[in-house]
Amino acid sequence: MAGMAAERDDEVVLQALRARLPDRALVTDPDVVAGLSHDDAEWAAVGRPLAVVRARSTADVAAVVQVAVEHGVPVVPRGAGTGLSGGANAVDGGLVLDLSGMDAITRIDPLERLAVVGPGVVNDHLRAAVAAHGLWYPPDPASSPWSTIGGNIATNAGGVCCVKYGVTGDYVLGLEVVTGTGEVVRLGRSTAKGVAGYDLTSLVVGSEGTLAVVTEAILRLRPLPAPARTVAGYFDSVVAAGEATRRVWEAGLVPAALELVDRHCLAAVDAWKNMGLSLEAEVVLLARVDDPGAAGDETAVRVRDCFTAAGATWADVSADADEAEALFAARRLAYPALERLGPVLTEDVCVPIAAVPEMLARIEATGRRHGTTIANIAHIGDGNLHPLLVVDSSDEGARQRAELAFDDIISDALALGGTVTGEHGVGLLKRDGLAREQSPALLAMQRAVKAALDPHGVLNPGKVLPPE
Amino acid sequence: MAGMAAERDDEVVLQALRARLPDRALVTDPDVVAGLSHDDAEWAAVGRPLAVVRARSTADVAAVVQVAVEHGVPVVPRGAGTGLSGGANAVDGGLVLDLSGMDAITRIDPLERLAVVGPGVVNDHLRAAVAAHGLWYPPDPASSPWSTIGGNIATNAGGVCCVKYGVTGDYVLGLEVVTGTGEVVRLGRSTAKGVAGYDLTSLVVGSEGTLAVVTEAILRLRPLPAPARTVAGYFDSVVAAGEATRRVWEAGLVPAALELVDRHCLAAVDAWKNMGLSLEAEVVLLARVDDPGAAGDETAVRVRDCFTAAGATWADVSADADEAEALFAARRLAYPALERLGPVLTEDVCVPIAAVPEMLARIEATGRRHGTTIANIAHIGDGNLHPLLVVDSSDEGARQRAELAFDDIISDALALGGTVTGEHGVGLLKRDGLAREQSPALLAMQRAVKAALDPHGVLNPGKVLPPE
């Protein structure tokens, strides 16, 4: 009987949505719904939603949230579904709100150095569009060929450029959102500066759709940077690579990227693409230097000298774009190369720069202890590590061991003064970690904010905040 | 009788504070209390507080807020009192919480590029201390010789460097705060990146002591920049200066400062220091270029060429530090030079770059219409204008006309797509403007956040949010 009542209720919700939405916005085909019910997080729980709404306008989004409030139905916003923490995973009986169709670039303004975009605009599409005006949108998560600006905002996405140019939130001037009560509200501003009222823009950035649904963003842009040089260094230990990073920092240098790729990644890339890197290095460091002119050339040489002084077995500067691309390809191909070996559970801890060598050593020990292959790529200049746990999908025991390793990595990051998530967000996978990282009083403040802005609890419930 | 009851209640509050605070922390001397009851905002209402507490520790601050919650007494945090919006003005019967004594620089870490400081550390003191380590704390409000980091955080202070290096909030990684319930909570992080939970750090930044009291800050630092060149341009109209700014922006150049000083300021400076500037220009533009090496030299020449192409009557580049200092002196001396003529009511609107010439023209017309002298200094590269309304203090009519002019400037800024406050904060003076700038729904969201984090309403009540 309960099941029949639920079915009747579901039909009422679907009817209410159909009455408010354009034709074909509401999707109930089980295969389509299932395909849009999860992001890329391995092993995060996925609910069975009632339906998907493909929103095409702010009015569509407002209608969905209003119906959700009226009927007490959860709404899970999603973009391209490239998230790695389960933040876009569907909730049982809820609605998936697909924003990928709201992909208009409404304005690119070279004078104000800003763009106004829908949440569904793909990161790389935006970058290409503004480049045509001599402008640059820096945030460059590895998902940039597919991930949307709305998703980038939801997770406050980072990337390779952050070490010099900051993260997504540093480029969000203002937002149009649909609130937890279904109202359309503009937050922030379109001026270069502004301190009128509380910074709700920054509060919504990184809140993973739990405080509001972003329907438009005003993004800050920069002029395109000067062409970059790439500095590569091969090291025979992670400790030496950590020492190289320390030297670059202490020399007062600011590379536009500083990336680490370890031997597990190099071996996987070699096994796939036969680049031969794993024969030459245990660890590769890649720096990008985009200071203009001779000063940039000098900075690149100084970065190389820091690598050498830290014991690099080889280090050199390249100003050739093709050569630089080949060097960064190892970084870019690491993840897909590892995925060829089995499902990859991606970690995202961030620790102080000084703690990076110790953290990498502990990750190595954790892998040995649990018999789990753990490869490492890292935005080492930010102390943001991505241990990649590769698992044999046919072996349930391997999966359980990987989950233990995942928890141990979190414990070690916290013990070293780090955070459980540098750029991927909390979603479902890091809720326990959040509860371990933050004080009960801080969690209570966040619950109070959530209750204040989503009083009906319909916006992506169960994400970010750990259960009480 | 009510008065006597109030006095008895006051004595109970003072007793409770004495029991919790170190000797001499509680100050009731009327002259001292009056002197610490207001900031530098002209004409903002000042209440008569019960007492001042000179906090020396986080425990002192927690004790004050706990007593305040218990007895329903407002708490107004303050640093140096250099605010320009009345945000630190005392509330009748409340406590002034003076944080200027919490002035320890606990840590300067060149490797992590961060500093840990008390809220009472003076901006320039911090800058000097980190410079000794080759590091730089960029935010540079004009008040930097006196204003405290706590006050800078409370207002999300800007300054001259923002156009390239951002505002205070861009340099706040984490905070220790005392909450509205008197708990000590750490927000944010000390790692370079981190997205664990909601960004309450950014929410507290700029909230003017209404959501929490900052007791410690973890600040991001940069390496010291390269020595800068100064580019000066003389123009015969604000429209020409606006055109010069447009050309610099459209050329993709990023100066580290771009400041405008108008003829009223030049005349006041000349009257005081006899620099002769007002004979040569209606408007002066000053740019600072700190790109390193030859590229920076080239950028400076290109800025100069933009000035010339826009009709500058004179423009030149100087790499001489003394000459640059002399040029920026006119900018720095404008405010005190004007204050010699009478009380100065400082505006702080921010408009799109494209709207700056029109906004300056409207300000000129507003001054004529109300018979008020309005001088202009502007962070023109950010569109952040500081019309300075100079009033004869002996003339009540002049003051009333200046208040009308103040309101008209706000109206014009809003009509041109701007905001009522670029960097000074809302305090008391911009509450009406905030209500005009923001939608009722947005104001309601902010009230909900205030109620969630300050449920007893003791933290700087009446500031920022307009009365309902």
UniProtKB/TrEMBL annotation, chains A, B:
InterPro entries: FAD-bd_oxidored_4_C, FAD-bd_PCMH, FAD-bd_PCMH-like_sf, FAD-bd_PCMH_sub2, FAD-linked_Oxase-like_C, FAD-linked_OxidoTrans_Type4, Oxid_FAD_bind_N, Vanillyl_alc_oxidase_C-sub2. Residues 45-224 form the FAD-binding PCMH-type domain. Keywords: FAD, Flavoprotein, Oxidoreductase. Pfam families: FAD-oxidase_C (PF02913), FAD_binding_4 (PF01565). Its cofactor is FAD. GO terms for molecular function: FAD binding; oxidoreductase activity. Belongs to the FAD-binding oxidoreductase/transferase type 4 family. This is Glycolate oxidase. It comes from Auraticoccus monumenti. The lineage of its organism: Bacteria, Bacillati, Actinomycetota, Actinomycetes, Propionibacteriales.
